[in-house]
Write a structure and sequence with these properties.
Elements (H helix, E strand, L loop, with lengths): L4 E4 L6 H11 L3 E5 L15 E5 L2 H25 L9 E5 L2 H5 L4 H14 L5 E7 L9 H4 L4 E4 L5 H8 L11 E5 L7 E4 H9 L3
Parallel strand pairs: 1-5, 1-6, 2-3, 2-4, 4-5
Antiparallel strand pairs: 6-7, 7-8
Helix pairs in contact: 2-4
The chain binds adenosine-5'-triphosphate and magnesium ion.
């Protein structure tokens, strides 16, 4: 999966379930940001786990690590005159963006995420963010526009669907069906979550 991904939906809509399905299918190194300390805890200590961070100071430190890794990749790329990192992917999985963006360190975190979202792709540093909350303060437009893959699960109301998708095409069921946005399609596509995962994994 070569583009950043946002997974958004109300509580119980299947964000963490989907995130885990996706992680299992990806290869590379991972940084896990798990403010709830449950959904991603099983990955801590695994060989592909570069960092696991749960409290806010650890999270800021882990995101700084990711930025440092990205910058060192750019230095190597400049020397090699490459436009795209040819080494392995580094995925940064954030289970609940709202917990970070509404914390008292939100200014720092917003800045870090904006840096990763705008520059990460070429260095193969990819964000996978889950969020329950889809307000401006949690996903500012300037971050949203840099997350070109979106899996929109069930939302609270039509306005939330519109914020994420730019349109409203009816409510989704409890879980298993989503609207998928990818950079190569003009409009969101209604599909099963399994098909959405297949589509994202196949992205090259
Ligand atoms: N596509 C699916 N197929 C089968 N079961 C699913 C699917 N999606 C979610 N579930 C089940 O629904 C329940 C809620 O899913 P999950 O915990 O992923 O929701 P969530 O959006 O992460 O909620 P929260 O915001 O509270 O963290 C879980 O028991 C999960 O196993
Ligand atoms: Mg969850």
């Amino acid at each position: 999966m070569k583009n950043h991904l946002l997974i958004a939906g109300v509580t119980g809509s299947g964000k963490s379930y989907l995130e885990n399905q996706i992680i299992k299918r990806l290869s590379g190194q991972f940084i896990y940001i798990d403010p709830k300390m449950v959904e991603l805890a099983d990955y801590e200590g695994q060989p592909t786990c570069k960092r696991y961070a749960a409290d806010i100071d650890e999270i800021i430190d882990a995101l700084d690590d990711a930025i440092a890794e990205m910058d060192s990749r750019f230095t190597v790329m400049r020397a090699r005159k490459e436009k795209l990192w040819s080494g392995s992917y580094l995925y940064i999985v954030i289970d609940e963006l709202a917990d970070l963006m509404l914390s008292d360190r939100k200014k720092t975190i917003r800045q870090q995420l904006a840096t990763l979202a705008t520059k990460g792709r070429a260095a193969r540093v990819i964000l996978i963010c889950c969020t329950q909350v889809t307000t401006q303060d949690v996903i500012p437009q300037m971050i949203l526009v840099n997350l070109p893959n979106v899996i929109c699960l069930r939302q609270r109301n039509a306005q939330k669907y519109r914020y994420l998708l730019g349109e409203y095409n009816g409510k989704l069921p409890e879980y298993g069906v989503c609207f998928l946005v990818t950079p190569d399609r003009d409009r969101p596509q209604k599909t099963t979550t399994e098909t959405a995962i297949e589509t994202l994994i196949a992205q090259e």
